[in-house]
Amino acid sequence: MLDIEDLQTFVEVADAGGVSSAARRLGVSKSIVSRRLCRLEADLGIQLLARTTRGAALTEAGATFRDHAARVCAEIDIARETILPAGDLRGRLRIAAPLSIGPTDLAPVFAELARRHSQLHIHACYSDRFVDIVGEGFDCAIRVGYLGDSNLIARRIGPIGGKLVASPGYIKTYGAPERPEELLSHQALMQGTEAWQFTDGDKTISVRPQGRFKADSGIALAAAAVAGLGIAWLPACLVEPYLASGALVSLMTRYPPPTAGMFVVRPPGSHPARKVRVLTELLIEHFG
């Protein structure tokens, strides 16, 4: 008789590419993960993983078995949710959230979810990088901005505004752009090579500014803007304290950025886990 916990552990190791990564995901020790793997392989009488110096690689049998094991685990999760009392949530919920606003705006909502459901284990990871929620084993992610094409399933939880900002020192030295096209002659502070969008009546104007300072963190970009390194396009909730103190100034208010959104995204599948649904509803209640 195969143990469901052993199956779930095997799927985590297969997806994470190693025992150490899977142990971090599961919140248990490496020895426990190894013990569960050995037990599963003994029960099946076949080797599922080939241990290497870099981690663990699936054997041919392991690759075949992984897909079946993942489906079994998903079906059991759905079955468990079906028979649980209506308000009861159990198990583990792994959430990827943006670092720029996560600890301040989202963490209180995660804490409230934990308070309401004492059997639920919440693991939140805060990072402004674009997390691969399937490959890294997250149940869902919170994303801010404009969503591109993806096979992920998204649910909008509320609007979020953006502001174009710079320091008084930068404006004194380089002037303030008045029209979107004038941004092309300024230093932009960006995460990558993104386009910035602005509204002019019913029209949306898109520009691709250039700059020498880039960072994968909105907090870091705000700090660079305060230091006078250039112009930044950032979530309003992140820059409000800087605007209130006078460290940053709003620019081009005649051409406001279109309202963006905050979304919960999850892997594709017809049956979203109830814990993800409950989190989504709580976020909509808070931000919607």
Automatic annotation (TrEMBL):
HTH lysR-type domain residues:
2-59
Identify the InterPro entries for this entry.
Answer: LysR-type_TF_proteobact-type, LysR_HTH_N, LysR_subst-bd, WH-like_DNA-bd_sf, WH_DNA-bd_sf
Keywords associated with the record? DNA-binding, Transcription, Transcription regulation
Family per similarity comment: Belongs to the LysR transcriptional regulatory family.
UniProt protein name: Transcriptional regulator
Q: Which organism is it from?
A: Paraburkholderia caffeinilytica
